[in-house]
Amino acid sequence: MMDLIDWKADLPAEWIVYAIIDPLADNKPLQYWYLRAESTDAWPLYAGTEFADDILSGPWLLPLNQLPDWEAWWQEQETAGQATGLLLASVTESEQLVKHWQSLLTAGLDGEEVLFRYYDPRILAPMLYTFTQEETRRFLGPTNELLLWHHDDWLIASPYPEPDLTEHSEPWWRMQESHFVGQPGEKEIMLFNIEQWLWQNANELTTDLYERYGPIADLLDRQYRQSLSDNIAALWQPAWMILGLMGYSHWWPEVQRLQEIQDEQRDLMAKVIQQIKRAQTSGIE
Questions:
Q1: pLDDT tens-digit readout, 202-218
Q2: Where does the DUF4123 domain lie (predicted)?
């Protein structure tokens, strides 16, 4: 098994090591950073994007050379099973890295735009195994090397970097069906889609759920199994699961009665979220 310290020692001296972290991770990496970093040159990747109001819910890029003994801390967290994010090594200016990784926050999936939580190793690691060499090169852009913890070992991606792949005027990354082979099955794809949709369309509610009950994927999996037990039609499973996730399962009979024949799956999901937001604002249960 590769040692993290050996990996860092083998990097060219001019390469800078960064971390992309999820500030909502269990080990509170952003809080750790601000308490111990010698300087605080950190970049919230939501800043300047459509998600700017939620910068404390989205990923941050941190230069690790400002954090003494970061290797020991990072390896301890990873081996303890706490997903802290991704490690990057790059010779490129930090501004270019920020632009590139910001451009991946939204991606195309089944003809729609979704929030892409690539900074969660549980999502990205299985996908990396499915990427072609060209896809890996484009995904990493100006990043020389990427390192993340997966299946009790380190997974490395190190294509030839493309410094010019840093700015995109619209979502450009497209998730392909083949990218889900490492998380196989229609169920996994559906739950992934619902989770991404929730982060994008109900970020505050989803963040609250995450902080109170843990990973959204685990919560959705339990709802999915219950939907099968209750014989919920596949078309309406997402809306049903969202109600259960948010604690409004008792609304389902009324939602069924009011749904219009022409409602598509995502239309009903959006209506359910709107009703939940209104209910929470007015204190209705």
A1: 888 999 998 888 889 88
A2: 17-137
